Amino acid sequence: MPSTDHDFVSTLPSALRRLRDARPLVQNITNDVVMNFTANALLAAGASPAMVHAPEEASEFARIASSLVVNIGTLTAPSVTAMVGAAAAAREAGVPWVLDPVAVGATTFRRETVAKLLEEKPTIVRGNASEILAVATGVRAGRGVDADGASSEVADVAAALAKRTDSVIAVTGAVDVVTDGTTTWAIANGHPLLTAITGSGCAVTAIVGAFLGARVAPLEAAAAALVLVGIAGERAALDCPGPGSFAVRFMDALAAITPEDLAAGARVTRA
Ligand SMILES: Nc1ncnc2c1ncn2[C@@H]1O[C@H](COP(=O)(O)OP(=O)(O)OP(=O)(O)O)[C@@H](O)[C@H]1O
Ligand SMILES: Cc1ncsc1CCO
Ligand SMILES: [Mg+2]
Predict the structure, then answer these.
(1) Model confidence over 181-232: pLDDT tens digits?
(2) Using CA positions, which residue lies closest to atom 19 of ligand 1?
(3) Which residues does the annotation say bind ATP (predicted)?
(4) What CA–CA distances, in Å, run from 163 to 72, 77, 91, 108, 230?
(5) Range of the domain at 62
(6) What is the pLDDT of residue 150?
(7) 50 within some domain
(8) Which among 34, 69, 146, 200 is the best mutation to test ligand 1's pocket, defined by most ligand atoms within 8 Å of the CB?
(9) Ligand 2 centre from 33 Cα, in Å?
(10) 81 marked ligand binding residue
(11) Which among 29, 74, 143, 194 is the best mutation to test ligand 2's pocket, defined by most ligand atoms within 8 Å of the CB?
(12) In sequence order, which residues have a C-beta less than 8 Å from that of residue 1 and are 6 or more positions away?
């Protein structure tokens, strides 16, 4: 039975303080379903969101952003141009960036776009288990935008992918896995109601970007975001009648969680 990683958990309050002090400018090129929800989640967490996605300006903006979030949920040809251009600009300018490969296994268009984006060296890739498996194997996997695998089963695949791509890999599910290929954490925070609303995964990815933008180191940034969203989900679910009010309470909880709450509620073990 693995025990809590107290060394890491004790760093969580300073990571959240850093995010709220820095109020990082997080550029998002994300999907049409979750744009408003994502911007509000970033505000609630303490970041400053900017949904700047036009091909004409996305790469220019990426050079001045604190971090960049690229989410392929509702991909179009112009959005691919914006994403690849912004990711390249971020890499050149030393701006950290995070990739959410939504439903990457579903179509050739998504697989080819993710292959192009991986060439721009994302700092972190965050997906559900079927998405991370599809990225790792390059083959068709999973049904669509929702997960259908257990994250714990992909920990080895994620660690190998982290080594191969030199990125941190964050796999979400009932238990999340975060790995840089050497250190691997399992995070048991969260609530099933998070899967009953659209965009909770996209919000996690954006908040990973927020911690990165506050210059928290990648492995710690990914884990802190997963703990924050997980605890917010747990709080929001208390006496919650259903998904509608859960989404509202989730936003309230994200804003109300203190740095100390983060350390007190974290369930992080070293794998
Ligand atoms: N069964 C579960 N129990 C508790 N928490 C969960 C469960 N499944 C997912 N979560 C949490 O929900 C959040 C979103 O993860 P999920 O894997 O559902 O992302 P996703 O599939 O990309 O979602 P979406 O694409 O709909 O935004 C994460 O914080 C994760 O820890
Ligand atoms: C439902 C849905 N379809 C494309 S993106 C998206 C939001 C979850 O990622
Ligand atoms: Mg998703």
Answers:
(1) 999 999 999 999 999 999 999 999 999 999 999 999 999 999 999 999 999 9
(2) 201
(3) 126, 172
(4) 23, 30, 18, 25, 26
(5) 6-270
(6) 53
(7) yes
(8) 200
(9) 6
(10) no
(11) 74
(12) none
* CA 242/CA 264 separation, integer angstroms: 26
pLDDT at 141 over 70: no
Find all residues with CB under 8 Å of 115, minimum gap 6, and list them. Answer: 138
Q: Is residue 1 a part of any domain in this protein?
A: no
Distance CA 161, CA 180 (A): 9
- The residue whose C-alpha atom lies closest to atom 4 belonging to ligand 2 is 73
Q: What is the pTM of this model?
A: 0.96
Percent of all residues in the chain with a pLDDT value above 90, rounded to a whole number: 92
Minimum CA distance residue for ligand 2 atom 5: 73
Of 250, 222, 241, 229, give the one whose Cα is nearest residue 97: 222
Give the pairing of strands 124-128 and 48-50.
unpaired
**Residue 23: partners with Cβ closer than 8 Å, 6 or more residues away:** 46, 47, 48
Q: Is the residue at 172 inside a domain?
A: yes
Map residue 266 onto helix, strand or coil: coil
Q: Is 123 annotated as belonging to a binding site?
A: no
Q: Quick one: pLDDT band at residue 2, thresholds 50, 70, 90?
A: confident
The answer to whether the complex's ipTM is over 0.90 is yes
Pocket of ligand 1 (CB under 6 A): 102, 128, 145-147, 172-174, 176, 190-192, 194-195, 198-202, 204, 226, 229-230
Q: Which residue, by CA, sits nearest to atom 9 of ligand 1?
A: 173
Total number of domains in the chain: 1
Residues 44-66 have pLDDT tens digits of 999 999 999 999 999 999 999 99
CATH at residue 142: 3.40.1190.20
DSSP 94: T
